[in-house]
Design goal:
This protein has helices spanning 4-33, 43-54, 59-70, 103-117, 146-153, 177-186, 209-224, 239-251, and strands at residues 80-88, 92-100, 120-121, 131-139, 160-163, 168-172, 191-200, 204-206, 228-233, 235-237. By secondary structure, the protein is an alpha+beta fold. The chain folds into three domains: 4-70, Integrase, N-terminal zinc-binding domain (Arc Repressor Mutant, subunit A, Orthogonal Bundle); 80-123 and 203-251, Alpha-Beta Plaits, CATH 3.30.70; 130-200, YebC, transcriptional regulation domain (Alpha-Beta Plaits, 2-Layer Sandwich), CATH 3.30.70.
């Protein structure tokens, strides 16, 4: 059976994801470079460059981002980091962090997604009080078991360990991250990645198919947007409903 259009669309989707990863890393580097252009003198810039190289971001992209952030590229607009917050269907709290060189474009895009999938855009602190900024360490469950990780972090100041479908997450405060990271590295525990994220204090269970679908599609739309670097929500969707929604999305995607 001929599947050319489907294969092409899947390839385009993969390329789009790669392009966004490169773009987000470039913006993070540009923001870090606003303080100082030399990574040897700027720990934040050094860390941003290391993370970008792990994601195979080309050196020329990195150099261009440093020049953009430091002001060496006089024609480049500066990158801003902004957080938006609102409620999605089912009173699910949502926070999105954007990295943009064109605030008007970004606000227009976000408002479009709001109107399509969510209830209302909130004021500052309307939902952010439900979240705390924490370091999240992602670990491959195929390489390390939950029991071994739980036993290991008991010796640290890590706050929690959570099992999800694709990874084990270790949560730690911003202050304790370096100590926890070094301890895990000394135990030869390999990370998928580590990043600062919004972690909800309380979660909301979503049991309605249509609401779960809207939330999934909303997050998908944000992941497709070039300016959005991360999205945090506080919903819980049961495995059975989550599978049903994912199957529906898959069935209605990549149609020729």
């Amino acid at each position: 059976m001929w599947r050319g259009p489907v294969v092409a669309k899947r390839r385009d989707a993969v390329n789009a994801v790669k392009w966004k990863v490169f773009a987000i890393h470039a913006k993070l580097i540009a923001i870090a470079a606003q303080k100082w252009a030399d990574p040897d003198m700027n720990a934040s810039l050094h860390a941003a460059i290391v993370k970008a190289k792990k994601e195979w971001v080309p050196n020329e992209n990195i150099d261009r981002a440093v020049k953009k952030g430091s002001g060496a590229d006089k024609s480049a607009a500066q990158i801003e980091q902004i957080t938006y917050e609102w409620y999605a269907p089912g009173w699910v709290a949502v926070m999105a962090t954007v990295l943009t060189d064109n605030k008007n474009r970004t606000v227009a895009n976000i408002r479009h997604i709001f109107s399509k999938y969510s209830w209302t855009m909130g004021e500052t602190w309307s939902v952010s009080w439900m979240f705390h900024r924490k370091w999240v360490i992602f670990i491959d469950p195929a390489k390390h078991s939950y029991d071994s990780i739980e036993e290991t972090i008991f010796e640290t100041n890590a706050e929690d360990v959570i099992v999800e479908k694709d990874y084990i997450k270790v949560l730690t405060s911003l202050e304790d991250f370096n100590e926890v990271e070094k301890f895990l590295e000394d135990k030869w525990i390999e990370f998928i990645e580590a990043k600062i994220d919004f972690v909800p204090d309380n979660e909301v269970e979503v049991t309605d198919f249509d609401k779960a679908l809207k939330i999934k599609k909303m997050i998908e739309a944000f992941n497709d947007d070039e300016d959005i670097s991360e999205v945090a929500t506080n919903e819980i969707i049961a495995d059975e409903l989550d599978k049903e929604v994912e199957e529906f999305i898959e069935k209605n995607t990549f149609r020729s």
